[in-house]
From TrEMBL:
InterPro entries in alphabetical order: RraA/RraA-like, RraA/RraA-like_sf
Span of the signal peptide: 1-20
Residues where Mg(2+) binds: 178
Protein name, entry field: Regulator of RNase E activity RraA
Keywords from the named record: Magnesium, Metal-binding, Signal
GO molecular function, one term: metal ion binding
Pfam family, one: RraA-like
Length: 311
């Protein structure tokens, strides 16, 4: 009996070791990483945050999203100091992660063999593998550990392939090449550390859809990105809906406060602190008269939020 149990244990451990060597994370592993998400998922296990929420997220300020996550205890979700292909752009989307490391030939060979076992394209470079699995609305997020020279993760060819699959852009903690060509891809955008004419030759892909680090942030597959000229916020999928609504209400509060300050009805100190019952009542009257067509949320969503937060 002991021998049978020992054999089963060895087989279990061996199976776990083999699975741990997969280039792409399994759906079960991704579901474990994102277990707080209760909604729809992609076949690969990633949370499928709706396109409608992604569109609403584009109007949220970085500071509001940052503040919401800090209140939830997520203190390391922001990363700044990027170069941006189109600095005026705003990008939101669902994360597909990729990790790169300095080239080591024996490990690279192992990755290539495992990629072949996973039916990945072995004719081109492995840096095309994350691109092949992108879905509309995805953002390709790569940990290139800040390397630029000989670590340029895409040029215009791969940029076109990325946009064809995702209709979105990239976030690379590393380099890009052929910026002129990338600028010509209508609708494509990217946040990156620097550009260089060198091609990828001293860097290798090691994993897809596993946890990665982008600057100060730990990023999980299926996280949602809000990126603009002020930086990037990585949002756990289960927080997106509430974060968007809470931030939209803050924007309405700000609009009300700015209007009342211009009217000189209140002093700055009265608006920039906890509101009195009288100011709250004034706000509720103001919001009641606010045109439904101009609200960023439905009236039912707004009323539910205000009621639950004791307005």
């Amino acid at each position: 009996m002991k021998n049978i149990l020992l054999t089963a244990l060895v087989a279990f451990v061996a199976l776990g070791f083999v699975n741990a060597q997969d280039v792409g994370a399994s759906p079960d592993y991704i579901k474990t990483l994102t277990s707080d998400w209760t909604g729809e998922r992609f076949p690969d296990g990633r949370p499928k945050v709706s396109d409608a929420l992604l569109n609403r997220l584009k109007k949220i300020r970085i500071e509001e999203a940052w503040g919401y996550l800090r209140r939830k205890g997520y203190n390391n979700q922001y990363e700044g100091n990027w170069q941006i292909i189109h600095p005026e752009g705003v990008m939101t989307g669902r994360v597909v992660t990729a990790q790169y490391m300095p080239l080591r030939p024996d490990f690279q060979q192992t990755v290539k063999l495992q990629g072949a076992a996973e039916n990945r394209d072995t004719i081109g470079g492995s840096n095309s593998w994350p691109i092949e699995i992108l879905k509309p609305g995805d953002i390709y997020v790569a940990d290139g550990y800040g390397r630029i020279i000989d670590g340029t993760l895409i040029g215009s060819n791969l940029g076109n392939a990325i946009y064809a699959n995702s209709q979105n852009g990239v976030i690379f903690d590393g380099g890009i090449r052929d910026l002129g060509g990338l600028l010509e891809i209508e609708g494509f955008n990217g946040w990156y550390r620097g550009e260089d004419p060198s091609y990828l030759q001293e860097q290798m892909l090691t994993s897809i859809n596993a946890p990665i680090r982008i600057g100060r942030v730990t990023v999980l597959p299926g996280d949602v990105v809000l990126a603009n000229r002020h930086g990037i916020i990585f949002i756990p999928a289960n927080f997106v809906e509430e974060l968007v609504l809470a931030s939209e209400v803050v924007a309405l509060r700000d609009e009300f406060g700015f209007q009342r300050l211009r009217e000189k009805k209140y002093l700055a100190g009265q608006i920039d602190t906890r509101w009195t019952d009288a100011i709250k009542a004034d706000f509720m009257g103001w919001i009641k008269a606010y045109p439904d067509s101009k609200l960023p949320m439905t009236r039912a969503e707004l009323d539910g939020y205000l009621k639950s937060h004791n307005y």
